[in-house]
Design goal:
Layout: E1 2-6, H1 11-22, E2 26-30, E3 46-48, H2 56-64, E4 68-71, H3 78-83, H4 85-106, E5 110-116, H5 117-121, H6 140-153, E6 159-164, E7 166-168, H7 180-190, E8 194-197, E9 203-204, E10 206-208, H8 209-219, E11 226-230, E12 236-237, H9 238-249, E13 255-258, H10 273-279, H11 287-300
Parallel strand pairs: 1-2, 1-4, 2-3, 4-5, 5-6, 6-11, 7-10, 8-13
Antiparallel strand pairs: 9-12
Length: about 300
Amino acid sequence: MKIIVTGGAGFIGSNLVDELIFAGHSVVVVDHYERSKTRFENPKAKIYKIKFADIEMASVFEKEKPDAICHLAAQISVTESVKNPQKDAQNNIVDSIAMLEMAKKAGIKKIIFSSSGGGIYGDHPEIPTGIDLNANPLSPYGIGKQSFEYYLAGSGIPYVALRLANVYGPRQMSEGEAGVISIFIEKILKSEPAKIFGDGLATRDYVSVGDVCKAFVRALTTDYTGILNIGTGVETSVKELWQMVTDISGQETSVIYEAGRDGEVQRSVIDATLAKEILNWQPEVELTTGLKLTYDWFKKLNRGV
């Protein structure tokens, strides 16, 4: 199968490209490299350095004739979406619709969309949170992700929207709030104090990027159309996470507590039971193991040193 991966130079995207190629697929990367400071390019992938909504994208569809799209390119910051909701909507809704229209004209057979569990569900009363089609997102980021799910559903193209928990692992950026694990690791490597926003009791469901990529690959071949949650169902507080990372590093670094941020969810844990049923998928990497792999990767690259 030939697959276009938008955002294929990013954290999840570059890992997914490797997983797809390992699985025997032909991969075309579309990424404008705005955020990708370090390039993780698989030599077996064809690369187009353009924005996924640019007019040149139509010629990529025409030339490459892909079977499917894994759409990961996005504005990824909850905080930034609150500060600049218009920019967030342009990237995550308007541009995605433009790409979707080009995909329809090109006869794309399947779209796998990187959606957001925590962003869409917000502070949900059900923990772990199962698939809720009537969720009320707390941030423009979550609204944008949910909105594009509706456009996918109305497109007539078979799709799977993967509502991801908090993804972590090698190649994650240590910028913004999206990658708290990579931020913690970088602070430790620099011997700088880390910041925790709020009281540190906010919880998240941390799922390894390797497990997430396996879910994408399996979603490409399923007959199922709709939404699936991808997470571990394990709840970990920010305080607990910080302690786990410092234990792995063997170093002690101070922590600065600051006020909580607008749009942040207090508890976020995903129930991925349906993904197990539909995709025969379940997380394999336990958090302490994944943290050790991630720490070793950052240390090997001497990030922040």
